[in-house]
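Hi V.,

Quick status before I head out on leave. The structure for the redesign project is tokenized and pasted below; the design run finished overnight.
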């Protein structure tokens, strides 16, 4: 389990409850961009630099290493 490329340890950084992963810190999601932000990006005035955490799970399936990116939810 990695958040933004940093290895996470079970019991220290997150817990598994059933099929859910419960992180001990809040994971940030960028959210939707408003029309002013889109226009500023279109004209090259500004980019989007909001905090956004990526959660990747590395595992083996049929002897091959796989990586899946998860989308955090509030529930």
């Amino acid at each position: 389990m990695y958040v933004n490329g940093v290895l996470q340890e079970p019991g220290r950084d997150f817990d598994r409850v059933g099929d859910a992963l419960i992180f001990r810190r809040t994971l940030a999601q960028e959210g939707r961009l408003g029309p002013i932000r889109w226009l500023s990006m279109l004209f090259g005035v500004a980019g989007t630099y909001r905090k956004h955490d990526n959660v990747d799970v590395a595992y083996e399936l049929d002897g091959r290493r796989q990586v899946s990116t998860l989308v955090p939810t509030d529930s």
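Above is the designed sequence. The beta strands are 2-3, 6-7, 14-17, 20-23, 55-61, 64-70.

G. will cover questions while I'm gone.

Best,
W.
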